[in-house]
Amino acid sequence: MAPTLDVKKVAMIGCGSMGGGMAQLLAENNYHVCLSDPSEDSINAVLHAAEASKIPSNRFSKHTDYKSLCAALERPKVFFWSLPHGGVGDTVLEGLLPFMEKEDMIVDCGNEHWENTERRQGKCVTKGIRYVGCGVSGGYQAARRGPSMCPGADDETLALVLPLLKTIAARDSNGKPATGAVGTGGAGHYCKMIHNGVEHGMMSAIAEAYTLMRDGLAMSLDEIGDVFESWNSKGELEGTFLIWISRDICRTKNEDGQFVLDEVEDKVVQDYTGEEGTGVWSNTEAVERHVPAPTLTTAHYLRIASGDRHQREQVQKAFGAGSGDPNKDHMAVFAPQKLEDITDRAAFLEDLRMAVFTTCLAAYCQGMLIIEKADKDKHFNINYAELMQVWRAGCIIQADYISTKLLKPIYDYCDPSKSSSNPLLHSAVSSDLKRGLASLKKVVLKSVEADAVVPALSATLEYLKVMTSTALPTNFYEAQLDYFGKHMYDKKGDDEQGLPTEGKWHWEWKAA
Ligand SMILES: NC(=O)C1=CN([C@@H]2O[C@H](COP(=O)(O)OP(=O)(O)OC[C@H]3O[C@@H](n4cnc5c(N)ncnc54)[C@H](OP(=O)(O)O)[C@@H]3O)[C@@H](O)[C@H]2O)C=CC1
Ligand SMILES: O=C(CO)[C@H](O)[C@H](O)COP(=O)(O)O
């Protein structure tokens, strides 16, 4: 008989925003949760919130040291972690190991780097301890209500933990939990990392659309909120979580009746502290695995550039802020302007909707192509259909049309670990991208004229141009490389069937 994980008590180590929510969710599902956190205040905050939700207090216990925590658990001991990435996990593991036994299990729900996950899995396996790298998505609200859970481990461990994850995961419209056996080793954390990369591309596209409506079309926040609501309710952006929260953001007012959004400074700072790594890692992964992901990367660069506002102010001054007539002064500072010649606002908004959709879809495609490449390199043995299910509910990149109409059919019938399932080659995806291209081009053109900041939208336009072209300017680029570095080139018509290989030809452009 297959082993089962029959426990009624679990530990939550790290009781912050996510851990605190998941602890309550577990307790609500009849688990006793042993809470552990360096800060008693954090634990007490969970207990107060649980009391407000009428969760019986005897479903929790507080633990200040690992000995008492481990003594309180049944065998096998199950530890959920919701910790910052990096060294913290190593410290916690070192602290726990003396009290852990064969068959005990760690479910690491942080945004851990997949290589740390695999390193710890290697350490644990020698002691018979199971370590699941489980990406969790949906933010703290979903942690409380039901998040999307993306686990990676060996098959036996996944079979053991999935029933537990299924009880707390978000459910899609068919009642199916947003979790599944994603793959082996660090696959779960790898896919969660790429989820966050895709999230960056989608967030940037929507933020860029917001600025085009606000500054370019001089729309009010109420009007923009209505547009987001309509985008989310039908068509290609239907059921897109980030569009849905954008509607709320446009409508939310503070106690003085002012829009909260208008208080928010124009900078994304969280990548500066190093506390969040997924955005950086997903982009370094793309580059290291030779997968073009400009929608993700450009969105990330926008964050980085925005974060240091002081520098932007200085550069603005150096470029001549307030130095006069922008028509005469070639160093005039860019400033949001109204979009010119928009006679048919409804038609422009429709183009904008399609431009945002195209960018979100391109971000998804780029993310899937990174995962597919890593899967081949690292043998994650990813189950793509299960991964699609993980992203069907509860997560930040939930996008009903993209996942059910476009991607699910591909991954239900195709196993990319055996052959390529490049989504760009699938007719439903390519025809939607083609449909969106004309709108994207119009929006980017208008944005360039109006000095609107649209990095993710324009990077997506360039991506689609480049990916569909067989006449890139890289013949010239290659010639430059050969000129100064004797780096060799292929001649037009040389074999282009296989993987990129070094060229066979050199021209002595100038004798040494
Ligand atoms: N916030 C979000 O939307 C999401 C976050 N994540 C990931 O989930 C993880 C937790 O995030 P989040 O809840 O937002 O972060 P928080 O900072 O709110 O929570 C982290 C918790 O870990 C605790 N902690 C720190 N060091 C230790 C330690 N040595 N032993 C035990 N506990 C420790 C902190 O304690 P202390 O009380 O001292 O601060 C804190 O309570 C991160 O990896 C994050 O990237 C994943 C998805 C969404
Ligand atoms: O994991 C998450 C969502 O999925 C967390 O919200 C995370 O904090 C987002 O950070 P970033 O956008 O920098 O990846």
UniProtKB/TrEMBL annotation:
Residues 188-510 form the 6-phosphogluconate dehydrogenase C-terminal domain. Its EC number is 1.1.1.44. GO terms for biological process: D-gluconate metabolic process; pentose-phosphate shunt. It comes from the Eukaryota. It holds the Pfam family NAD_binding_2. The keyword NADP applies. The active site is at 192 (proton acceptor), 199 (proton donor). The keyword S-adenosyl-L-methionine does not apply. Keywords: Gluconate utilization, NADP, Oxidoreductase, Pentose shunt. It catalyses: 6-phospho-D-gluconate + NADP(+) = D-ribulose 5-phosphate + CO2 + NADPH. Pathway: Carbohydrate degradation; pentose phosphate pathway; D-ribulose 5-phosphate from D-glucose 6-phosphate (oxidative stage): step 3/3. One of its GO terms (molecular function) is phosphogluconate dehydrogenase (decarboxylating) activity. PANTHER family: 6-PHOSPHOGLUCONATE DEHYDROGENASE. Catalyzes the oxidative decarboxylation of 6-phosphogluconate to ribulose 5-phosphate and CO(2), with concomitant reduction of NADP to NADPH. Belongs to the 6-phosphogluconate dehydrogenase family. Homodimer. This is 6-phosphogluconate dehydrogenase, decarboxylating.
